[in-house]
Amino acid sequence: AEILKEGTDLLILAVGRMVYEALIAYSILIKEGISSTVVNCRFIKPIDKDLIHDLVKKIPNVITAEEGMLEGGFGSAVIESLIDSGITNFSLKRIGIKETFIEHGAPSLLRSKYNLDASAIVKLAKS
Q1: How many domains, the chain?
Q2: Domain that holds residue 39
Q3: What is d(CA 30, CA 50) in angstroms, rounded to the nearest whole number?
């Protein structure tokens, strides 16, 4: 994994195209006074446990962002890894696809429809 931006209020762990959306969200959030660390996690498996665990201990407010299914996906792997390591002092929200039938269409429209974009990250960060 690679730290792309450093902040203290929020940790955004992103994979795939969601890294781009996380960087856009970073720019929006910083203007609103929310300082974020953005990490390109690169792969869903294996996750970079050492880096993620260290960061969550410092920044326990976490959002995971992926374009895949939430169930059994990257965010689930992060939660499982943290709990299995005895790290329980964190708040984690996940962005991804809920178990549903995915329609066909233009990628940009589908990202917006399924909340896989920067605005969804910003909204979740403020909630």
Answers
A1: 1
A2: 2-126
A3: 26
